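Collaborator request, handled under Task 6.
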Amino acid sequence: MQRHDEEYDPLRGDHVALRSRHPDDIPILHTELYNDVATRAHADSRPWRPIPPDPSLSPYAVRDLEEAAFFSVVTAQEDELAGEALLWGIDQHNRMAHLGVALRPTFRGRGLSVEVLHLLCRYGFDVRGLNRLQLETAEANRPMIAAATRAGFETEGTLREASWVLGGFVDTVVMGLLAADWRGALT
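Structure tokens returned to the collaborator:
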């Protein structure tokens, strides 16, 4: 059930919240997420390359505000930086976007990704008025696939050998969620 009262915050859950990216977040995200080459290789289709610790060069610097929405994931109680979340490739004409989530190593394995995905859905469907959200991830990224499934996403297909990951081609899983299905799961 959707809530629209004054106390409702679509970007806050029980355990985590989404907020704008602060400049102080960038060095932490860069060090703990970007420089984790093995994990990043399974989560991002772009090749890893060495980037100096200059916040303006970091992939976590906020850019392209028309086609992307960048969030920092923080703990709901302590406001501690837990990771990043984003909608990218926002297509207002077709009312769809892609999404991504990456948690710092100390926040993984706690089930937080499911809540982050729910918050991204609230933002995408309720705030932005999108109709479809989708994610793509390496088939070996089982934690993301499990979290997306728990959040209501359905596997729509597999792109065979579509991603180059650490010396070899791997399959990419495409998962999607429609606004109507998401709203139907809330009732």
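The cover message to the collaborator said: "Strands lie at 16-20, 68-75, 81-91, 96-103, 132-138, 154-165, 168-178. The chain has five helices and seven strands. Please let us know whether this matches your experimental observations."
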